[in-house]
Every structure is written in C-alpha cells, then in structure tokens.
UniProtKB/TrEMBL annotation:
GO MF, one annotated term: glutamate:sodium symporter activity
Organism: Vibrio hangzhouensis
Membrane topology, from the record: Multi-pass membrane protein
Subcellular location field: Cell inner membrane
Transmembrane segments annotated in the record for this chain: 7-25, 37-58, 70-90, 96-119, 126-147, 167-185, 214-232, 244-264, 276-298, 304-327, 339-360, 372-395
Family: Belongs to the glutamate:Na(+) symporter (ESS) (TC 2.A.27) family.
Functional note: Catalyzes the sodium-dependent transport of glutamate.
Top-level taxonomic group: Bacteria
Name the record gives this protein: Sodium/glutamate symporter
Keyword Transmembrane helix (UniProt): yes
Family annotation (InterPro entries): GltS (IPR004445)
Sorted UniProt keywords: Amino-acid transport, Cell inner membrane, Cell membrane, Ion transport, Membrane, Sodium, Sodium transport, Symport, Transmembrane, Transmembrane helix, Transport
Principal location listed in the UniProt entry: membrane
Length: 398
C-alpha cells in the first residue's frame, strides 16, 4: 500500500480550487440552485470519489493534512455572532426551546432505529447506537470518545461502524436540506421578508461592491471575536463546562457586535457587514469542502450491509420528521422552512452541514436571521448535553 500525504498548504489550496468548482457549477446549472445544493458538496465530494478510485485501482492512499479546517469554523461562527443582535435573540427564545425539545425527541427515535436494525440483522443491539445519535448527531468526536466504551463491551468494530455511519450521514445531510426547504416553500407558497442582507454570503445573481475598509474592518472584528472566544472558552472550562470552541466564538461575536450597537450606539456600516458575510461564507465553504475531500469512502466496505440498511431508515426518518413535525412546530413560515433545511444537518451531519444547508437556501430565497441564531445554539450547546444523557440511558437499558 502506497501512501501519499498532502501537506496543509497544498490541501488548503486544493480546497480553494474545489470550492471554485462548486461555485461555478452552481452558477451554471439552475437545477443546483433550485434545490439549494450546497456549493462545497460538488467539489469536495468529487475529490473524495477520485481519492477512493485511486485507492481501489492503484493501491494508494491519499491523506490530506486538514489542520486549517477547524480555524475556518471558528471564523464562521464568530461571523454569525457579530451579525446577531439581542432583539433577534429574544425573538428566538421560544423557538429555541421548541427546536431543542424536538431534537431531544429525535435523538431517541434515531437510537431506536439503530438498535432495531442491528437486532433485525442479528447484531448486538447496542451496536445500533453507533449508527444512531453517537455518530450522526454526535459526529466524529463523539464517535471516537465512545469507541473505547464499546471496545470494553467486546464490540471491536464499533469505531469502524461509527465512522462509516458518520461518513454517509455527512453526505446525505448535505443533499437533503435544500430539497426539503424547496418542497416546503413551494408547497406552502412561502416567501421571505424581502431582506437581501444575508447572514452568510449573498443572494444568487446579486452584484456587490466591497472596498478595502469594509473587508479589513470585518477581518479585525472577526479576529477580536476569536481572541475573546479563547478567553470565554478558558473561563467555561474552569467552571467545568466543556463546550465546542466554536460556541465560545459565537458568544464572543454576539457580545462584541452588541457592545458596538448598544453601548457605542454605532451601527456596522453596510460595507463592513458585507465584508463580514462574505468572509463567513468563504470560511464555511472551505470548511465543508475540506471535510468532504478528507472522507475515506473505502471505510464503508466491511460494514456495508448494516450501514446501508440503517442509513436508509435514518435518512427517511429525518426527512419525514422534518417535514411533518419540525416545520409545523416551528411555525410553518419561511423561517421554519430554513430551519427545516438545517435539521437534516443536525440529525445526520454536523453543525456546519446544518448551516451550509441554510446558507444555500437563503442565497436562493432570501434572509432568515432568526434561523441562523437558533440552529447554531441548538447544535453547539443544548443538543450535545442531551445526546450524552440519552446515550447513557440507552446503554444502561441495554
């Protein structure tokens, strides 16, 4: 087996090329815009397929150094925070708790599906948790954190099952969000409020003008948010709260943005706001592109029957629950359709896939400010705590 290791600089440069490809393809083909397929999916997943083909036919593994990926996510969430004001947060209070409650219910459903399919195929029922909320809602970090516990139970393939589930989940999460929103918007004849100032990126076919001041000012505010975010993260750690770093950067962005608005009585200029949304859009796109190009699809081989079967049920359940439950409970309006597009990312992928789904939808149909506050907070804070408690409950019961 030959191994080719691509260093961080080359991997980052390749991700830029792949994101360019995704943006050009989206601009060229109307069907990609119609169903709000995220731009990073096109280039990133194509790269993953090519790498898998090289592995299969040339006995060569290509490994990318993706160290820059996490920093990009921090910039993105800092930008989300800077765009939020306290009035939007207050409006999002009730929907925030409703979406959290729905997510908790779905965690139970998701684990139930995993356990049921494992039992049906004659496998250890507890292995189904690895194809449930551990790998799908929890992600790679949660999967690897729980793997030693499953190994102690004699399930040595648990990590492999979890990683394979997460890989397929990430792909499907990127693909179902846009079509779900498109269906809901068309079915219920929904419209945005006409606001073209998006939280992330710009609307399709919109011409923008950005000067040096706007770009530099946005960059400065983002860097200050990351600095403050590190202090907030350290403070939370001392209090015993271990949260993802991007949550601290989100909080820091909210504090800095509202300090300028409420204390200094100064609004961010339209040009600076535009610079902020464009930088955030690029960072999110680059993050997901790098996440997809780093997928090792051949890891799916040994567990294909179980993973393939359970993922069919998981994807179907996510779509049905989103359309018939989430959309209705969140208000059956345009904001609800955008939140619904992100719910697939919550249940099958990650916070980043949830946001990139919503970004693709708003670029097509218009802004949804409340959605971009509610979903990151649910993904980054409430759902992780609930997931850990529910997983422990299932393990004790089994």
């Amino acid at each position: 087996m030959n191994i080719i290791e691509v260093d961080g600089f080359l991997a980052f440069t390749l991700a830029i090329v792949l994101l360019f490809i995704g943006k050009l393809m989206t601009k060229k083909y109307e069907i990609l815009r119609k169903y709000s397929i995220p731009e990073p999916v096109i280039g990133g997943f194509t790269c993953a397929i090519i790498v898998a083909v090289i592995y299969a036919f040339f006995d060569t593994t290509i490994s990318f150094d993706l160290g820059m990926r996490d920093a990009l996510l921090l910039y993105f969430f800092a930008g989300i925070g800077l765009s939020a004001n306290f009035s939007t947060l207050l409006k999002g209070g009730k929907p925030l708790f409703i979406l959290t409650g729905l997510s908790v219910v779905y965690i139970v459903i998701q684990n139930g599906i995993g356990i049921s399919v494992a039992t049906m195929l004659g496998l250890e029922p507890v292995l189904g948790l690895m194809a449930g909320s551990i790998s799908l809602i929890g992600g790679v970090g949660t999967t690897m954190a729980w793997a030693p516990t499953f190994n102690e139970m004699g399930l040595e393939s648990a990590a492999e099952v979890g990683l394979a589930s997460n890989t397929l989940g990430l792909i499907f999460a990127c693909l179902i969000g846009g079509p779900i929103a498109n269906y809901l918007i068309k079915r219920h004849r929904l419209q945005s409020q006409g606001d073209t100032q998006l939280d992330i990126g710009v609307c399709h076919n919109q011409t923008v003008k950005l000067d040096h001041f706007g770009y530099l000012y946005a960059w400065l505010m983002l860097n200050l948010s990351l600095i403050l975010g590190h202090f907030i993260d350290a403070g939370l750690s001392k209090m015993g709260l271990q949260l993802p770093m991007f949550v601290a950067c989100l909080i820091a962005g909210i504090l800095i943005g509202n300090f300028k608005l409420l204390v200094l009585k100064k609004k961010v200029s339209e040009n600076a706001q535009l610079g902020q949304t464009l930088i955030s859009d690029i960072c999110l796109g680059m993050f997901l592109t790098m996440a997809l190009m780093g997928l090792q699809l051949w890891q799916l081989q040994s567990t294909m029957l179980f993973i393939g079967t359970v993922m069919l049920f998981q994807v179907a359940a996510s779509i049905l629950f989103t359309i018939f439950v989430v959309f209705r409970f969140m208000g059956k309006d345009y904001e609800s359709s955008v939140i619904s597009s992100g719910f697939g990312g919550i249940t099958l992928g990650s916070t980043a896939t949830a946001i990139v789904n919503m970004t693709a939808v708003t670029q097509q149909y218009g802004a949804a400010h409340k959605a971009f506050i509610i979903v990151p907070l649910v993904c980054g804070f409430f759902i992780d705590i609930a997931n850990a408690l529910i997983i422990n409950t299932f393990l004790q019961a089994l």
